């Protein structure tokens, strides 16, 4: 109050200073800052809270572990046969909780599911909803949840663990807690018409009672070398090279794979570097930055160089000279690459 009075006093003497101070006093400056991560919501359309993707937008198929592939296949089968199941008094899978580290394909799989089912995808980022909670946010989230149950769609609740954190936080305003209760209740009563996907990088933050609310759970893990190789191959890299690159990417996510392939394509287009060469360079750099053991870096790097030269039809002896190793080493590398 005293600050307000100060502002009005200042106004009389200095209009500009008053204008600068006023937002801090009324809190509008903070609010404006808060909303920068989530745009202010139009209370009629609810659109800014939720991202929409049409079923016609192109989407790549994720490269998944055998277990995840089985789960995706089962889910699609049930959703596509919903009428048959319903006629038999059964309910198709309505909700799925995806958990795993960042960059392994949770969002990508949700998108893929939506495309395969020819449904629109709505994505609600719960972390930003929770962190920039404003007066109407609760009502708008509710409206999104209701809308997604009126129109057949896939609704992705991303960063779902934001709910768990809020649930345990005593300092929270009552409205936020009520919203969490509403969301959990919504999962229980979810309509079979739409598919609800929740995704989290922190499954361990969710208590078992929350996990149990979902019809299906999908665990995503960091990809195995075999899977990483398949991801490279899906992006047009030859098998032998993909296998070698996979050794360099042990412990890394699929998004790291996508990043180096993208960067190498750009390097090729913009600077005329041969794609494979750019890929080897980018992969070596990425895996070095990720802390890959020097020994692995050196041997995989050598094998990759041999492979690059070999692909150009260079004989083993010349490869040895070109990359400065012995002829025997080159022969051994060629044999192991085969
Ligand atoms: N399983 C996967 N197969 C192919 N590409 C993947 C896979 N997982 C991640 N990617 C790549 O990484 C990007 C980010 O993945 P995303 O699905 O957003 O990860 P998450 O949601 O698990 O954090 C994707 O757009 C894609 O390019
Ligand atoms: Mg994601």
UniProtKB/TrEMBL annotation:
Annotated CDD domains: RecA-like_protease
Sorted alphabetically, which InterPro entries does this protein's record hold?
26S_Proteasome_ATPase, AAA+_ATPase, ATPase_AAA_core, P-loop_NTPase
Q: Which SMART domains match?
A: AAA
**Residue span(s) of domain AAA+ ATPase:** 92-224
Asked whether the UniProt record includes ATP-binding among its keywords, one would answer yes
**Which Gene3D superfamilies does the entry mention?**
P-loop containing nucleotide triphosphate hydrolases
Highest taxon of source: Bacteria
GO-annotated molecular function? ATP binding; ATP hydrolysis activity
One Pfam family linked to the record: AAA
Q: Is the keyword Aminoacyl-tRNA synthetase in the record?
A: no
Entry keyword set: ATP-binding, Nucleotide-binding
* PANTHER family tied to this protein: 26S PROTEASOME REGULATORY SUBUNIT (PTHR23073)
Tell me which family the UniProt entry assigns to this protein: Belongs to the AAA ATPase family.
Q: What is this protein called?
A: AAA family ATPase
